[in-house]
Design a protein that fits this description.
The structure is a single chain. By secondary structure, the protein is mainly alpha-helical. The protein is about 65% helix and about 0% strand. The protein is built from seven helices and no strands. Helix 4 packs across helix 5, helix 4 crosses helix 6 and helix 5 packs across helix 6. The radius of gyration is 16 Å and the shape is globular. The relative contact order is 0.11.
Length: about 110
């Protein structure tokens, strides 16, 4: 079940809890999950994972903050969770990615 929440207090005000969305739309959690999956092509939990990594990519390009601060502002629990999630989705850790060391191409 997706949590739809982030660690940053500023983000918490923008992104309501999953249950709040379900309640506000007056639909079941399963129906909401199906609507999101049908609308954007991935389940809500995967979408949230992708969005957090996108926030790291956007904020990491400036690279003005330390990794732990970047993790917190992107909505991760801590730096190690950010690094693991980034590596899972992008194929390399954030430091390697921003240094220009991209994963090797693999045939489909």
């Amino acid at each position: 079940m997706p949590r739809w929440r982030t660690c940053g207090a500023h983000d918490r005000a923008r992104v309501p809890a999953h249950r709040g969305i379900v309640r506000r739309l007056a639909v079941s959690e399963r129906h909401m999950r199906d609507l999101v999956r049908d609308g954007i092509g991935v389940p809500p939990k995967r979408f949230e994972r992708i969005e957090r990594v996108r926030r790291v990519l956007a904020r990491g390009r400036a690279h003005t903050a330390r990794w732990a601060q970047l993790a917190a502002t992107a909505g991760f629990y801590d730096q190690s969770h950010m690094t693991a999630e980034f590596r899972t989705l992008m194929g390399v850790p954030p430091a390697a990615f921003f240094a220009g060391r991209f994963p090797s191409l693999q045939p489909c």
